[in-house]
Backbone:
């Protein structure tokens, strides 16, 4: 699991429409739900309260007009959650964007680091 | 002046070292200081308190090991502020990164929007 401002590189926040944004927090939450099968566990791993994690899931589901995360009530997977096909697509697209953006700015990243180290060390 | 989550597109947060990050808030502040010649005025335009704006400036100056922002005390420009050459370079590099990243992710951006509109509208 990534920790904000600890992993060096580019972090991307995508603003699709005014007030409709997708950033590292939501992406990490989707990834966590996919790997743990639980909204609560995914949130916990990211240091989010249960309320916060659920709030973000509801926000994403509303923003995309259909669930990115499905939950199962009762049965063997009581309380379980997972990504819908759309949720998977959103996560995949976001990770690809992160990767492409990271590649595109390597030169400037190097220049920025040089600027720092030339002075600071 | 940009307003967070209102301007659509990619917003970039660059983590240079653990806990040393440069994002839209700091970049907008640098730009505002450059155009207004004042930390207080730049902060105000961004809805930041004077304390917050100063805190970010001090953080950036420390992060880069030399001032990105210079301040003048007394004289005709009493209380004035501006970017140092390094500050200008940092702002230019950041804006170029935003541009390059935005270009690099156009395809995914389109796919993400289509995913939304296909469902939501």
Residues:
């Amino acid at each position: 699991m990534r920790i904000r401002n600890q992993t060096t590189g580019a972090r991307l926040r995508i603003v699709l429409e005014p007030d409709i944004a997708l950033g590292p927090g939501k992406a990490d939450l989707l990834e966590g739900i996919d790997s743990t099968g639980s909204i609560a566990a995914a949130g916990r791993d990211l240091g989010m309260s249960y309320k916060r994690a659920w709030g973000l899931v509801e926000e994403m589901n509303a923003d995309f007009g259909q669930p990115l995360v499905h939950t199962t009530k009762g049965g063997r997977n009581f309380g379980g959650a997972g990504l819908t096909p759309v949720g998977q697509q959103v996560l995949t697209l976001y990770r690809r964007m992160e990767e492409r953006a990271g590649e595109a700015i390597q030169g400037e990243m190097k220049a920025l680091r040089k600027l720092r180290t030339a002075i600071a060390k």
About this structure: Chain B touches chain A through 46 residues (CB under 8 Å). The radius of gyration of chain B is 17 Å. The helical segments of chain B are 24-36, 39-45, 50-63, 85-104, 106-120.
